[in-house]
Amino acid sequence: MGILFLGVTVLLLAGCGADNVVKTVVNPNGSGGRTLIIQVSQSDLQSSSVTPQQLATVLQKAMPSGLKMSDDLTSDPATYSFYYNFKNMNDLAKEAAVILGYKPKIQFSQSGSPLAQTYNFDEQSDPTQYFSWATNAVNNAGLFQNQGGNLVNSTTFEADLPGQSANGNQQGVSGSGDYSFSSTKAIPVGLGVKTSIGWLWGANEKISMFVSAKDATGIPKGVMSAFFKKSGVGLKKINQKYTVEYVTTLSAGSPQALDKKLQKLLGNGSSLSYAKAAGSFFSPQYSFQQTLNLTPWLGQLDLIGPSSSDFTLATPGQILNFDGIPVNSATKMDKVSMNGQETVQASATVQETNPLLYALLGLFVLALAGGVFFLTRRNRFAAVKVVLAQAGLVISQTAATAMTKYCAVCGAKNNIGAKFCKACGKELVENEMPCPSCGKGNKPDSNFCYACGSTIERSAN
């Protein structure tokens, strides 16, 4: 808060060099407090044989109803404070009427935008009369009589309003007067501008306003969204732990299209160009030039200079300095302070790589990968065929063996369902034992194969 001083030279406590202050503190909603301050030097108290406690007792008994008292008797000067709080200007005027004997005219008003408020406080009264009760109490108590009333005393009218105050206009040197005070409270705003140039000429502009989370609570709900909507742009509100960010982003298919959108929002004082300046087909250089005058647009919010501001350029290539060396090869971004202004003047040279080169490289990599995959897959199919052929041979042999029944007498092959041998006519035994060597069928009680002489092993069962 800013403090405003208006001085009026008066005689107050008879015979005592007292310096007195009427101090009013006003909050943005019109509530606040008023303090009547009496200061008497220790030398004046000693020369008049008055103790600080003695004067405090006299003043406390005489103070008007509604006041509360505090003191600092050991300081020099000794200080006696009488204060009361008020909810609004009418409440303040009522308590003033108890002290003055009449109701003074007091007004408090505010105007401006959500980001910059102007406060005005005006009172028509005689500040010396706020201490008449103290003057009478001192005289009735017979204090400071040896001073003879020759000391000059002063009364100062102070107003403590929100924000930074300017000097008030005083009418009347002493006595009744119109005491006016004014102040302006601006919410500190951080400003950030980021221009991004993408591949194939896509571009966007991000404009951000940063407000502390505490100050953001003082912005009326819906005011910021209404401002951005009136401007024809979208708003994104990002709540963080300590800050609130208000963001609008303009997107376009090319820097030229983005330039038109910026001019529509900010006026003809803004421009953007991104054109080829030098370099080869596969490694061209572009010249970036941008001017952004945010003042006309943000001026509608009564933004009184951003507390901090930065401009950032993001490109698909490398931003070069005057020596042709990349400024920031890692992030491809160049951050420059706007020096607390609402105007951006930026220029840069950007070294890009033609997207066609990446497209050709991508096609080559795809073709190479496809060839490798094809050859690998072809070999896989050949291997599978061999395995399947081998498996088929085993299966056919096994199936052939499973479908054949040998005659135990002559050894001729017969179908699995035959009951008599087709060669000799003898009955085929159901449980014949096949030879493990030649496969010929043998009688169940045979120990050796009748065809090859191999031993026939039978199970224990």
Protein described:
With 461 residues, the protein is an alpha+beta fold. It has three domains: 2-186, no CATH class; 190-353, no CATH class; 403-461, no CATH class. Helices cover 25% and strands 37% of the residues. The protein is built from nine helices and 25 strands. It has helices at residues 42-47, 52-62, 89-100, 132-140, 213-216, 223-230, 255-266, 295-298, 355-402, and strands at residues 2-10, 18-26, 32-40, 68-72, 78-86, 105-113, 116-125, 153-161, 164-166, 170-171, 177-186, 190-197, 203-212, 236-239, 243-252, 271-279, 284-293, 308-314, 318-320, 333-337, 343-351, 404-406, 413-415, 433-434, 441-442. The chain has a six-stranded mixed β-sheet. Helix 2 packs across helix 4. It is elongated, with a radius of gyration of 51 Å. It starts with a strand and ends in a 19-residue tail after the last strand.
Characteristics:
6-stranded mixed beta sheet, alpha+beta, disordered N terminus, 3 domains, 9 helices, elongated, 461 residues
Which helices and strands appear, and what pairs or packs with what?
Elements: E1 2-10, E2 18-26, E3 32-40, H1 42-47, H2 52-62, E4 68-72, E5 78-86, H3 89-100, E6 105-113, E7 116-125, H4 132-140, E8 153-161, E9 164-166, E10 170-171, E11 177-186, E12 190-197, E13 203-212, H5 213-216, H6 223-230, E14 236-239, E15 243-252, H7 255-266, E16 271-279, E17 284-293, H8 295-298, E18 308-314, E19 318-320, E20 333-337, E21 343-351, H9 355-402, E22 404-406, E23 413-415, E24 433-434, E25 441-442
Parallel strand pairs: 2-8, 12-18
Antiparallel strand pairs: 1-8, 2-3, 3-5, 4-5, 6-7, 7-11, 9-11, 10-11, 12-13, 13-15, 14-15, 16-17, 17-21, 18-20, 19-21, 22-23, 24-25
